[in-house]
Records
---
Amino acid sequence: MFAEVKSSPWIYFVLALGWSWLFWIPLAISGIDISKAPGIIFFVLGLIGPSFSAIVLTYFVGDEQGRHDFWERVVSFTRITPRWYAIILLIAPLYSLLAIMTGLMLHGALPHLDTAIRYIKNPITIIPFALKTLIYGPLPEELGWRGYALDRLQRNHGALVSSIILGTIWAIWHIPMFFIYGSLMSEVFPLWSARFWVAMGPGIFAASIIMTWIYNNTQRSILGAIIFHFMMNFTGEFLRLPGDYKNYQFIWIIIIAILIVIYSEPTKFESRNKNRPVEK
């Protein structure tokens, strides 16, 4: 019984949120700018909460086999087939292209892509931009959300229910960011705007469903989750679609998630490892 409690995803969620909010709530209350020290230090310390918590629990709760399995899923490229690499890399550009086409049909004009044009004119700047995108999100989050919590949720729930539970925690975890001065969330998603509710509701549930689908079809690859999360953030920040076009991005990712749930074979959407014992 004690081992089951220790390996519960809810212990992980409490630790992950507690660690992140320990640093983020003081930032939100104080109004400290996170573009410089000490704000950036507190922000980054909070950002690593999901992965830091997963690593701590993997080492203190799991056994040697579990620790090896965890890191192998982070670094193994062979778990992902070429077909799934294509899917992982192309979904975010696809729903972004569909958003632009939707805006063109409805408004008769293409959106301004000033950010993308700036990067294209100076390609060398794409490298630090990509590294920053990887560090500020995919890497410090996915070792935890998909790498640790998802398996444990799927022990007792189906893929869809697990995705919704994880999406809910994922959304709650982000909330302090909307109050932190200088954070991207506070700039791109104004608090209480329609875009905020779409992003933190259906949008994040849709992303969670797609990531579960990818995870369950790539032999539980944490690397696959990191790459997909990276592509979502990279594409979104590279294009920086304005106004309604951003909303169309959310609408299309929701449509894609619905289609996955409806048309995927159950054995391909549900975890292929539901009966695999979680490390105690």
---
Amino acid sequence: MNLSLTQDQAMIQEMAQKFAQAELAPVAQMQDQIGDRALFLANLKQLAELGFMGLNVDSQYGGSEAGTVVFSLALTEIAKGCASTAVTMSVTNMVGEVIQAVASDAQKQQYLPKLCSGEYAAGGFCLTESGAGSDPSSMKTKAVLAGDHWILNGAKQFITSAEFAGIFVVWAVTDPSAPRGKGISCFLVEADAPGLSISPAEDKMGQKASVTNEVVFNDCRIPKGCLMGELNQGFKVAVTELAGGRIGVGSLALGIGLAAIDYARDYVSQRQQFGQKIADFQGVQWMLADAYTALEASRLLLMNAADKKDRALPFSKEASMAKLFTSEKVNKVCYTALQLMGGVGYIKEYPLERFARDARITSIYEGTSEIQRVIIARELLREIK
């Protein structure tokens, strides 16, 4: 098996690396502590201009058409510089992919170029509700057809980049009498739709520069043509797209973990205790060895899932494995890195405490580690039936 990158893949990875280190990393600490909305949006625009907001979108719609492997590689590099920027990039790419997968030709022509070009700073993926997180089939948001319009009522919670989004992909119940998960449809809702409002940003533990909001629909009126895909068939669209999103979250987590342990490795290679560099102690060396081994295993799991997706092979189990393993290992790696730094790792002057906070959510959003285990076990048992 040839695991080396193609020339194009390596070039895009290098482009992402250079942008992250030149534009994102120097301001990531400031964005976490203070936040500069204008600068954050400017960096998102630059990412779009570089082609990173539509990495798996066809070129006819303004996308890069680079594939999932490149998406994973690029997202890891962006996350090394700033996890908040990376999560916005990840979700916007996911929104672009779901539109490309199920929207009509007219809908694709209307919205994909705006996402890919940065005319829309971000896209919003509106699935989660306060009572429908790990079980999105129990959602309560409803859409009722009234003449030439759909009327949406309900609320979506924890929506990444809602304040920045130009377009939302929204799931709502359209047939309340259907079994759970069977009467749900998918809609495209523009940010300025009447009856749509966005609540103030949540005050989060990590990834603080990326806004996370509740999106409320109060008799929100959208044209009949905003239905995306088939009526009452939207839930399976969400399930499919979440599998791809897990590759994104795993790749983001990998970037955070690499940034954390790279920083700690540099630190222990310079700081001295007991008359020698900390890195010369065998115990420290083993901590580094375990951390980098876990991250390399994570990378290979992610590449396997991404490659299967690019080749149109079943990849749900592999994506869940990659997301589960990577997010859990990265949380441990960040604490290992902080431990290697000692007391200074706990101080906000250094980035280790930020890396640890940014990493924590990766084992929760896009499906918790517990849900990933459910998916993996279900697929394993299905294989022997």
---
Amino acid sequence: MAGGLNDLFSRLGGRRGDTPGNTGASAAAAGPDLIYPTKALPKFLATMSAKPAPALLDLGPVVGGNVSFFGEELGCRIRVEDVFGDIERHALNGTLDALPEYFRTRFKSEPGTVDGILCWDVFDYLERAAAASLAAALARLLVAEGSLLGFFSTTSDAGRAQYTKYLVVDQGNLRYRTYSGTRVRQRSLQNRDIIKLFESLRVSDSFLMKTNMREIIFRKPAYLAGL
């Protein structure tokens, strides 16, 4: 893709489950690892495997095991942009109101150059204006028929200031690893609000999990690629 994607798979290596780096928040309060099934990830992988050397964007944080997994499964180029770190930094600096403008120019890659995006649950930690700005920026990055995978909590997090790293165990399972941070989940988005957030994309798969998480795959249809 234009400007080039960092081949973190070759640079970081690592065994699955390794977690080099964090979002800048202390990991001292990290919770126990819990493993849960995922239905959206295998669908996302199947879509990406149909593309030769797909370009992936992971919104972070950097997890060496995930980079290894996607590199081995897809032979892909993967770039990690730690948006969770961006949110935490703005929260600590008291500049959360600047996030909508920040996200408009956050990504330097050319529009229409990313095949797949891993959002995890980043939208749960954003106010509406910042979420809309980030969603629009990501939609612009996707190629025609590109896919975006997002997780959206359906319940309140009881005010716990923490984030979650999603470590890929295999195609059907994820290890949840919580760590301390400044932000709490802002709200539980209704399905219609999530769809409205990605108005230039279309839902291809949606799963309501027993973990109180909605897993959604969005696709950028060719007829909307110019939006």
---
Amino acid sequence: MSVRLILNADDFGLTAGINRAIGELHAAGALTSATLMASGPAFDDAVHIAHAHPTLGVGCHIVLTDGAPVSPPESIPSLLGPDRKTFRPTLSAFLGALFLGRIHTEDVLREASAQVEKLQRAGIAITHLDTHKHTHLFPAIARPLLQVAERSSVGAIRNPFEPAWNSALHHGNGSRRLAVNLIGRLRPRFAALPQIRDARVKTTDGTVAISATGQLDAASLAQTLAALPPNGTYELCCHPGYNDPDLDRVTTRLRAHRDVEREALLAEIPKILSQPQSPKLIHYGGLNPPD
């Protein structure tokens, strides 16, 4: 089997418990990559863990909704919520503003650049970009992020679309599956963006387990891994952690399930790696052409 798989945990830097889970999973061979939130409450702890695990690929988890900016708020007015200090608190509010043309490209460029630069100043060699809530599904966000990637010498970005073979597993609830399938119609526009089309910024053949977010357990993870095609490069997006008091103090819909995902990765990744034709595990820094 020549298929390659990136095991990426989102929300690195959100809490110390999430950071600890990421470090433990990488040490156990069950995680290859994580994306770090520049304004996460546990940012400094995440940077320490990243430096302690130099083989862990670390990307920048660009946050444009449900969080605090790195830039001075007055410099990115179109991204702010009602308090004029933080981002819009919900994805629906962000998308409403995006569709009405109220989010300005220059503000996305400024804030995304500030987040990338904060990681780089902390000594993080950024492997790739992705976005909180997958906001770069939409070309109006993907375009400026790709500009930031090129300017900042970040070589890759998440392909935020779920491949058809993974959607066919029917993981996740019906409304989320429907949303993922409808948004999948934007895939050709993502592929046509110049940086993606010309491979100036690399990406994968798709990201799996998006539909299963919040419901990814050992059984669904095993089914996903068993369904991997024989060729291609895919990212498995996951949200492992520890459901501890720190998690109670932050805004997230994923709480008890972070323990479930952590345990699923520890149980299922060694199983597939023990098989004769197991996938090759990489991080985004390894997106050179397959051997």
